[in-house]
Amino acid sequence: MALNSAADNVRQSADNVRQGVVGQESTPPEAPADQELAAAPAGQHVTRSALTGVGLLVGANLLAVAVGTTTGWWGLFEYGWPAELLLVAILLSLVMGALGEIWMLVPVGILVGNGFIMAYCSLTGNWAAWGFLWLVELLLVGGVIILSVNLSRKHADAGRSLAHHLGMPVALLSGLFLVFIGFGSILASIFHRMFP
User: Fold this and answer.
1) Phi-psi region of 30 (alpha: psi -120 to 50; beta: other; left: phi over 0)
2) What are phi and psi of 11, to 5 degrees?
3) Which spans in 72-155 are helix H?
């Protein structure tokens, strides 16, 4: 942007010389304010999104450790460990929304899908279900890769727009499921103590 305005100043000076207006002050054309404002916050928005995701990851783990050390109940880690996958998915989806990179959908989709599947197996104790749920895993990984490739090749602008618009809703959905895993961990712990 600075090079464009410098080139405009040179052109304006050359026009002034040709017109014989050398002694007069010429004002450089101003860059649109919305372009300057849009450029600065973009980096700040990415940083803010990344720090928010890291803060949630660290904060949730510190909360779980605090609950474990004060009460002696470690059920949040024992049954709710798939929440870690969702916390990383929240971090990546916030960054995806800030950057507008549709390729971030691949790790986000894989982590969210794995978080759901692993949470089901962990909370219910039904690890035998993993025998057929790994097939869903193959569909999930293939689906997000194919979707990302198609959007980036055919509709680059639509992919960027979709990434911007999907970031926050995916993070919120993962956050809601994170709360469900927290309550599910409490219920699973009670249930497994009552019926060992």
Assistant:
1) beta
2) -60, -40
3) 75-78, 83-99, 105-124, 130-154
Cα separation, 97 vs 127, in Å, equals 34
Which positions ≥6 away from 13 have C-beta within 8 Å?
Answer: 26
Domain residue spans of the chain: 1-31, 45-194
Residue 121 burial (10 A CB sphere; 0-12, 13-18, 19+)? middle
User: 95-132, pLDDT tens digit by residue?
Assistant: 999 998 888 999 999 999 999 999 999 999 899 998 89
8 A C-beta contact, residue 93 and residue 170: yes
Among residues 42, 155, 180, 33, the alpha carbon closest in space to that of 98 is found at: 42
Helix axes 33-71, 83-99, angle to 10 degrees: 170
Between CA 144 and CA 108 the distance in angstroms is: 9
CA of residue 114 relative to chain centroid, distance: 16
Say which range, 35-44, 76-85, 156-165, 169-178, has the weakest mean pLDDT.
35-44
Residue 62 is predicted with a pLDDT of: 94
The answer to whether 84 and 145 have CB atoms below 8 angstroms apart is no
| CA proximity to 83, closest of 64, 66, 97 | 64
Distance separating alpha carbons of residues 136 and 142, to the nearest angstrom: 10
